[in-house]
Amino acid sequence: MENNIIQKIREFNRFYTGIIGVTNNHILESSYSLTEVRVMYEIYSNPEITARLIKNLVNVDEGYLSRLIKKLVRQNIIEKEKSKKDNRISILKLSKKGEIIFLKLNKNSSKSVKKLISHLTSEEQKKLIKNLQEIHKLLIPKNKNEH
Question: Which domains does the chain have, with CATH numbers?
Fold first, then answer.
């Protein structure tokens, strides 16, 4: 039975990543990977964010995240500035260019979701949200030491 559950979850994952436009490791027909966009989102949403906090939020390998941040700095999408509280720590911020890119991707993502659910009635949309919340609740380990 466990293999059947795993197969069904993987089947849904393939279905959903296709629907939300994650193909060839890029999202929303952009040149950015899902991880790059997620890093931009976390920087945009969290003032005073550090690479360590992003690593914990995104659950990504530290070396990979370091290379990704360096790439986004070279592309002038994010900027690093020394923390006023601790000179050893860099605070990450979106550059003006980075903010424009992120806001466009964010707007396109919202449009995509709106289109995705446009055929649903109001009641079906409420049911979908309830089910998504239930999935979220079920997948959070009751004891964080479990996995």
Answer: 17-146 (1.10.10.10)
Residues 6+ apart with CB under 8 A from 44: 94, 99, 102, 106
How far from 37 is each of 1, 85, 97, CA to CA, in Å?
36, 28, 14
Give me the helix-helix angle, 62-74 and 51-58, nearest 10°: 120
User: 85-116: per-residue pLDDT in tens?
Assistant: 888 899 999 999 999 999 999 998 898 889 98
pTM score: 0.83
b/e per residue 98-119 (b: at least 16 CB within 10 A): bbebbeebbeebeeeeeeeeee
CA gap 66, 8 in Å, rounded: 34
Taking 80 as the threshold, does the pLDDT of residue 31 lie above it? yes
Q: Report the pLDDT value the prediction gives residue 26, as an integer from 0 to 100.
A: 62
Q: Which long-range contacts (CB under 8 A, 24 or more apart) does 87-90 make?
A: 89/50, 90/50, 90/51
CA distances from 3 to 6, 13, 15, 141, 146 (A): 5, 15, 18, 20, 20
